[in-house]
Design a protein that fits this description.
Elements lengths: L4 E5 L6 E3 L2 H14 L15 H11 L4 H19 L8 E3 L3 H8 L5 E6 L4 H10 L9 E2 L10 H13 L8 E5 L2 H10 L2 E5 L6 H6 L4 E3 L5 H7 L5
Parallel strand pairs: 1-4, 1-6, 4-5, 6-7, 7-8
Antiparallel strand pairs: 2-3
């Protein structure tokens, strides 16, 4: 009997994007907490966890390190509260081919889908629900589990085992993402990494990282099945 496979999808830049909700909300929340204007423009968000983004933004805006750590828990809670009302279909751009691919993958025996994302868990599911794909992902790991993205793969693996009551080996885990951080996370644990060029990293940049699979996007389900899952 074939071993079960676990597919862990990143969210932002891989399956969807928002219309700037994250940046606007973080600027609002941190400006209120720091009692002065906060600018997110110097910080690249792609591939980072939300706690790391909040830290980086505060540090780039000159907030002392001790104040950053004191503010961070309140900032995460305030960010979730402020962001959720804006995570609606009108503010979510779901990438072409994503629901069709998930529809094809979900019923396949021995194949299990989860998420691995830097989003805090409530905002992750807020985005997935607004994109009408939340039902495909009953488990995952999130920025609320750790600020270090590399910590998230073992967490997702344990949650997959608990949810499915099946045992997964790391060589049977495939991470689907769009940034260098996804590549590093997979490589740190010996998982397979499939990259898509739908985020802020272009094909030459991603190709230089030598992912196991590199796709332009997720529109070609047959290509995904062949190159990612190794099926004819």
């Amino acid at each position: 009997m074939a071993r079960p496979k676990l597919l862990l999808f990143d969210i932002d830049g891989t399956m969807l994007r928002t219309t700037g909700v994250g940046r606007r909300t973080i600027e609002q929340v941190l400006s209120d907490l720091c009692e002065r204007p906060i600018n997110t423009n110097p910080v690249l968000f792609s591939g980072k966890t939300d706690p790391q983004i909040l830290r980086d933004v505060m540090q780039e805006n000159g907030v002392p390190k001790e104040d950053v750590e004191a503010i961070l828990p309140t900032a995460m809670a305030a960010y979730v509260e402020a962001a959720l009302p804006f995570l609606i279909p009108e503010n979510i751009i779901r990438f072409a081919g994503v629901p069709e691919l998930l529809d094809l993958l979900a019923p396949r025996p021995g194949l299990h889908l989860g998420v691995l994302t830097g989003n805090l868990e409530p905002t992750a599911y807020g985005k997935l629900e607004a994109a009408a794909i939340d039902h495909f992902f009953p488990f995952g790991s999130f920025g609320s589990d750790s600020a270090n993205r590399n910590d998230l793969l073992p967490i997702a693996l344990e949650r997959a085992r608990a949810h499915t009551q099946q045992s997964f080996e790391m060589q049977d885990v495939i991470l689907i993402g769009d940034t260098e951080h996804d590549v590093r996370c997979a490589r740190a644990h010996g998982a397979t990494i499939a990259c898509v060029c739908t985020g802020h990293f272009d094909r030459p940049t991603l190709a230089a990282l030598e992912p196991d699979v590199l796709l332009d996007d997720l529109r070609d389900a047959a290509l995904f099945m062949r190159d990612v899952l190794g099926e004819a």
